[in-house]
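Suppose you are handed a protein chain with no further information: no name, no annotation, nothing but its sequence. What can you learn? This example shows the usual starting point.
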Amino acid sequence: MKAIFALIVIYIGTFFVAIQGASNSPVQAAQHETAKSSVTKAIDPQKDSDIRSLLELIGARDMIQEAANNSTEQYRQKLISLAPNDDKAQDSVNSYLAAFQKQYDTDAIADLALENFVEMRDRVSDPRFLFRKKVELALEARYPRLFVPKYAMVTFHQVPYATALNRGQVQDRMLAQLCDGIDRVEDIDWNNAKRLIHSHLTPLELPS
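A reasonable first move is to predict its three-dimensional structure. Written in C-alpha cells, the prediction is:
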C-alpha cells in the first residue's frame, strides 16, 4: 500500500516540477538560488495557490482517489485468492483494507507532496536543514512514540496521512525553536524539548 503513496508523490512532484520549469525566468532562477539559503522558506503563496488550482482543474485528486480505489480492489482480490476459503479469512482481508482506506486522505496527500517538493527543491543541500534532521533523529530516539518524524509516520507506520501532516507541522515548529542558535546535537536544550513535546504531542499507537 505504501507503494501506492510513493507513486502518487512521484506523480504530483513531477507535475510540480513541470509547472515550475515552464514558468521559470532568469529573475526567478536568481530568486531560486536565494531561497536555498533559508531552511524555513516555503513555496511562494501565489505559486502554491496556482498549483492547487491546476490540480483541481485537471482533477488530480479524483484521479488519485480512483487509482487508490482500483489498487485497493486489486489487492483485495489478490489477498482473497491467497487466503483460506472461509469467512474469517475474508473478513480479515476486508478489515485490513478498510483500515488502509480510513487513513487515506487525498487532500493530505496533496499537501504532503507539496511539502516534499519544496523540501527536495530547496533544502536537501542546506547545512541547517541537515542539522535539523540530526536533531529530529535525536528527539525520536529519546521520545520514540511521541516525536516521530513525518517521513517515518508516512513510510513505516499505519498513521493516517492527515495525522502525519498535522503532527509534522507541529514538529517542524518545535525543531525551528530547538535548533535556533545551536549547531551541535549536544547543545539541545533537553528541558525545553521535553516541555514542548509533552505540551503539544500525544503518544502514537505504533507497533512494538
